Structure formats: structure tokens, C-alpha cells
Amino acid sequence: MSAIGFDIGTESCVIAAEKHGGVDVLLNYGLKRETPAVVSFSENQRYFGSAAAAFDNNNPELAISQVKRLVGRKYKEPSVQNDLRFLPFKTSESPLGGVLIHVNYLNKLWLFTPVEILGMLFAHLKQIAEINLDSPINDCVIGIPSYFTDLQRREYLDAASIAGLRPLRLIHECTAIALGYGVKKTDFPRSGPTTVVFVNIGHCDTQVSVVAFETGKMKVLSHSFDDNLGGRDFDDVLFKHFASKFKEAYNIDACSSAHSFTRLRASCEKLKKVLSENAEARLSIRGLVGDTDVSGLITREEFEILSLELLESITAPCINAVKESGLSVDKIYAIELSGSASHIPAISKKLTSVLWKEPRRIPNVSECVARGCALQCAMLSRPNHQLRYYKVQDLFPYTLGFILVEGVNKTQQDFTLFPKGSPFPSDRVIQYPGIPQCIEVIYTNKMDFPVEVGQFMIGLPYIADQKVKTELRVKLNDHGIFEIESASLLEDLGARSFFSPTEKVLASNVIIDNLYVSMTKEELAEAQNREQMLAEQDIKAEHAKEQRNTAGNFVYNTRNKDPNARAQATEHLLTCIADYRSIADSLPPGLKEEVNNECGKAEQWLNDHSPQHYSSPNNIDPLLWPEFVKFSVESLERRCEHIMRSNPASHMDKGKGMQVD
């Protein structure tokens, strides 16, 4: 049984499988190691991966991409609005404040949530994995950014459930990279922990983790990030530069249509990669706006000057991560660089100046997250796995606090459920006086303002005139999701003897409802049914396409079986043989012999096949297809023309004596 790891990136996805002690990256239908994170819709069929990405160039409004950036987010968030300006498809606000994606499909308008689109993508990746491994899969581990909120984590689980997957764990991406690094590296010094800084600069975000390694275990010391700074911002620098130049030089607006906008951005992304290897690069696009062809040149030095502000911003999470780890820069053993933007030379230079060590790029930077996820899946799913004793200790990047609601009163307690940097999974028991009707759990340090995690309704009975208090057992589970496992109502009996209880349980096993669930059970079941219906429609459309191809092949083959077509082709071959023999009479003896030999071969081929063909039963395929005869004509003409090139006069005679179609 293989252990599966999924890395769902902003632009592409990677699937890895751990089997027989090694980790392999699975190939998609196009035999590629990376699958574009795109879902597109034609009139009656969905497309995924590379096939869907083709829509992104020709009909960008039909291709849904970068859905990872929209999961668990509010439509009116400034960062979401910034992301949407890069996306050509239509969106709107849902009744609950989330994002709805508009798709015209099967002759009607569909409104999909980002969770549903992500579920479609998971279903496609699951299908790729099952075809590669020739067995069904359910258990997996999925990589997520460390900055994901509680809602985003729950929506990832819902999307996986829509696809029929059962995630054993959501693992932070830098933690997955560190796991793959720690398992492979065996030369850590035995004198103490070895500290490594992992910098992952993706398409839209930058994540930094400081990890301490010892033999048989790893411990994450800190997570830091900028969830709106990545390779896309460097693309945007080039985009703005060339859009301004083209407006001045050609009087065109590259932002005037989604098509021109998408083409210029894609070209700038390629240009960025070229500048990583060359001192200068040229950008040329045919028909960017209308019939206008554009071109421009930029040097690496100019690009770095334009990107100075971004380069400074990249260092901020690195400095913060080292500071929160409690270590000094001189204690860092190595800096490992990964992510789609890690190839920019200026980033390595900047990190070297800040962290005093030159970063090293992790091999196969686009695959390291998926490989780490596959290793984690193997450790969790196989009790006898060789790495089952390797200990991975991760930490949570936010502080969790709560607000109590008693009747109409809403009071924020100066109480921290889990401080920033708490290891997880972990649990604890808390007590406080009174009987709250509701508990609102919040992140107290998310971008300097409270972000709601959940609103938990506690079904405790109301008891008057008693000294009562509430006891809660709370937990950060394996996925980094907050849960209230149980709630009890206790009566305070005051100070009593050592052997007498000081508390009396008045109520326990009460019902706890989280009002902030991403999807109810009914909504999840409906989404699963809708995905199944859409998958059946894809199969139906594919079957219809195969039937059309079969019908086309039948028409083509029937046309080839037409005796009139065969007779015409045979007559053409005999005429061609006669004409070339006539021309051969005017050639020198050596060339004449060569041409006559070629004519004789063609005539012999026809004589050999004709009797067999005409003696065959009518209910089998013909032996002498018209296409075969036409090919013989073309072959004869090609060989004879080659022979006669040494005698130009023969071409004049040929032009007078015969006409070749």
C-alpha cells in the first residue's frame, strides 16, 4: 500500500507516493511531474491540468485557477480583492461573505464555492494517483501554508472529503520540506541540535521556518510568513514596466482585455526565469492588442533595481523567524531555499547579507513539499514503517483567546487558550465561573486584529443561586484546528477535608455546536452529489467524443474501401510509370537504367498486390487501399526526381510530356 502526499500550489500541484522505502513523484496524463492547478469548463465537459491551462491562454474567463488563494477567505478582504484583480473569471460575494465563482456550463449559470473547485482538483489528482498505482487510495497527507486559519484548514478537509479522500494530517509546507531534509541527512553532529532555516518563496507567499534537528527527531522552533509576497509580485514589477513602455511606444493598453492582460503576465513570468540565467532578456509578443506586435529589452540589473522594495520585504519574515526562535544568526547551520521564486539571484544575495550564510537551493524545489507529505503519510499509516519512531514536533503560529457571551453580555477574558508557538496536537482543561451560552474563539495576533476561529454554543442548563463554574476540555488537533471536546458544569463546594471532593458535577456530556463550520453535513453531502453528477457528465461527454471519432474513422475507412477511388489511384500509378519511362529514353544510359529500375519496382509492387486483393472475400478489409497506391505514386515521383536532378534538360522534357498532380 502506497502513502500519498499532495502539494496543492497556487499554480501547480505535485503528487508523491512513498513505496518500498523510497519516494516517487507520480506523472500525470501528459507524463509531467507537475499538474497545473486549473479547472476549466467547456460547453459540456470539464478539463483539468494541462488541458485546462490551454483555456487559460485562449479563453481565460473559462479557466478557474489560483483557487487556493480564495479558500476560507472573505470576499471583501483587501487581500482577496488584490488577488481577484489577477484573475479573469467572474466572482461575487456569497450570502455568508465568502467568494462565489461564476461559470457558464451546460447552458446555465453555476455558482461554485472555492471549496467545490478545490474538491474537483483533488478528485482529478486522486484519479491520477490511482492510475499510477493501479489501486484505490483514500488516506493521504496534504501540505498547507503555516498561515492558514482554522476556517481554511477545515475547508481543505471538506474539499478532500468531496473528492473521497481521508487526510490523515494537514502538515505545514515548511515542516514537510524539513521532514524530507531531516530524513535524508544523516551527518548531523551529536553534540546538540542542528538549526536550519527553511525559506519557501512561492507564487503568492513567503514562508520561513526555523527547525532544530537531532538524530531521530526534528522540532520546529518558529514559523514566520508574509502571505501576500511571492514570485507573482516580481512578475508584477515586470508587467507594470512593460505595460508602461508599450503604452508609450505603441499607444496600446495591455490591461484593456483579459486576453492581452493574461498573455503579457505569462510572458513576464517566463522573462523572469530567463533573467535568472542571463544578464538581459528580450520580450516579444505578436498581436498583443489587436494586430500590434510588441517587443522590449530589460537587463537583470534594471530588474533588480525595480524590485528593491520587494527584496527588502523578503527579509522581514526571515529576521522575524530567527528572532522568535530565540537563536542568534551565528547559530544557524544552513539556509535551505525552495519555492517557485527561489531561482531569482537577487533573493539569494539579499538573504546572504541578512543571515550571514549563502542559501542553498533544495533539489527539485517544486517537489519537496509533496515528498515530505508522502513521508508523513507513511509514518502515520504504517505501524511497521522504518520511520515510525522519527519524531516531528510542529508548532502553531497564532495565539488563541476567547470571548464569553452570557445572555446579552459579551466580555473578553484576559485568557489565552493556546499561546503562539504552542506545539500541536495538544489539549488542556480550563475552568471559569458562570454558565456561558456561547464562547467565541479568536486569533489574537492575526495581522494585529482579532480573527474569529469559531463560535461555540454550549448546551449547559441554567442553574440559579449556586456557586457554579464551567469546565472545558479544549484541543488543537492534528490539523491545527481548534476543538472543544467536552463541557461540564461544576458546583463549587468550597474548602473541605483532604479526602472530600471540592467540586460536584452538575452536568456533563453536553451538546457543543460550532456555528462557524465551513460546511454543514447536508451541504457537504450535496457538494459530493454534485461532484459525482459532474464527473458522470464528463464521462458522458468523453464517450460522445469517442463515438464521433469512431464515426469519423468509419467514414475515412469506408472512403478508402471505395473501388472507384482505388481504380483511379491505380490508373494514376500506371500513367506515372509510363510517363517516367518515356522521359527515361532521353536520359544518359546510366540515368535511364536507374529510372527504369524504379518504374519496374513500382510496377512489380502493383502486380504482386492486385491478384491477392481481387481474390480476397468482400467481407474483409482490402489489401490494396487507395492510400497505399497514392503513397506508391509519391514514392516513385520522389525517387525519379532525385535521379533526374543530375540532368536538368530532363525536367524540361518532363514538363512538356506529363503533368503531376
Automatic annotation (TrEMBL):
<dbReference type="InterPro" id="IPR013126">
    <property type="entry name" value="Hsp_70_fam"/>
</dbReference>
<dbReference type="GO" id="GO:0000774">
    <property type="term" value="F:adenyl-nucleotide exchange factor activity"/>
</dbReference>
<dbReference type="GO" id="GO:0140662">
    <property type="term" value="F:ATP-dependent protein folding chaperone"/>
</dbReference>
<dbReference type="GO" id="GO:0005524">
    <property type="term" value="F:ATP binding"/>
</dbReference>
<dbReference type="InterPro" id="IPR029047">
    <property type="entry name" value="HSP70_peptide-bd_sf"/>
</dbReference>
<dbReference type="GO" id="GO:0005829">
    <property type="term" value="C:cytosol"/>
</dbReference>
<keyword id="KW-0346">Stress response</keyword>
<protein>
    <submittedName>
        <fullName>Heat shock protein 70 family</fullName>
    </submittedName>
</protein>
<keyword id="KW-0547">Nucleotide-binding</keyword>
<dbReference type="InterPro" id="IPR043129">
    <property type="entry name" value="ATPase_NBD"/>
</dbReference>
<dbReference type="Pfam" id="PF00012">
    <property type="entry name" value="HSP70"/>
</dbReference>
<dbReference type="GO" id="GO:0005788">
    <property type="term" value="C:endoplasmic reticulum lumen"/>
</dbReference>
<keyword id="KW-0067">ATP-binding</keyword>
<dbReference type="GO" id="GO:0005634">
    <property type="term" value="C:nucleus"/>
</dbReference>
<dbReference type="GO" id="GO:0006457">
    <property type="term" value="P:protein folding"/>
</dbReference>
